[in-house]
């Protein structure tokens, strides 16, 4: 794949089933991206290196997904000026409510654009990352608009 513009990071390989939604939609839209497992608590040095070097490596947007005490998006946002989109992964114990609250309630000054819990949030994070990039990429803007038109066209007029 060409030079990645979007970095998709997640706290565990167990998050991949959810976060694949972001990767899939970015692939559909032809947006170069990379995927990495980066845990805030299990691999803090990896997180530091990733976030500190993200902008310098040419990434434009970071999508960070994590579950439970989900500090990954907030910590990543603290160490990069790139836009960070947070995806709360559905946890077993609290169905992702813990993830959502951990990610969304950032103190003023370090924003994390927080999406919905689970796969819908991951897909929307991919779409939002594409929309951000599309503000400076007319060809991508056209592909994104076409994607949305196909979605509209696929909606049935009757339920059965
Ligand atoms: C978080 O803990 C990860 O983001 C994941 O959602 C959750 C569980 O991780 P595993 O125990 O499955 O590796 O760090």
Would you write up a description of this structure?
The chain is an alpha/beta fold and 160 residues long. The protein has a single domain (6-153), classed as 3-Layer(aba) Sandwich (Rossmann fold), CATH 3.40.50. It has helices at residues 16-28, 44-54, 72-78, 97-104, 119-134, 138-153, and strands at 6-10, 33-37, 61-67, 84-89, 113-114. It has a five-stranded parallel beta sheet with strand order 2-1-3-4-5, sandwiched between helices. Helix 1 (16-28) packs parallel to helix 5, helix 2 (44-54) crosses helix 3 (72-78) and helix 5 (119-134) crosses helix 6 (138-153). The longest helix is centred in the C-terminal third of the chain and has 16 residues, at 119-134. It starts with 5 loop residues before the first strand and ends in a 7-residue tail after the last helix. Bound molecules: 5-O-phosphono-beta-D-ribofuranose. The site of 5-O-phosphono-beta-D-ribofuranose (RP5) has 9 residues, from strand 3.
């Amino acid at each position: 794949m060409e030079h990645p513009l979007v970095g998709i990071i997640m706290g565990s390989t167990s998050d991949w089933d959810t976060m694949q939604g972001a990767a899939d939609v970015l692939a559909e839209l032809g947006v170069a991206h990379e995927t990495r497992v980066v845990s805030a608590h299990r691999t803090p040095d990896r997180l530091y290196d990733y976030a500190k070097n993200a902008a310098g490596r040419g990434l434009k947007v970071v999508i960070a997904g994590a579950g439970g005490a989900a500090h990954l998006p907030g910590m990543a946002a603290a160490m990069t000026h790139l836009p960070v989109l947070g995806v709360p992964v559905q946890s077993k114990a609290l169905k992702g409510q813990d993830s959502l609250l951990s990610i969304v309630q950032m103190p003023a000054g370090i924003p994390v654009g927080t999406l919905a819990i689970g796969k819908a949030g991951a897909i929307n994070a991919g779409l939002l990352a594409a929309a951000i990039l599309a503000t400076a990429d007319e060809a991508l803007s056209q592909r994104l608009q076409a994607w949305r038109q196909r979605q509209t066209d696929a909606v049935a007029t009757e339920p059965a």
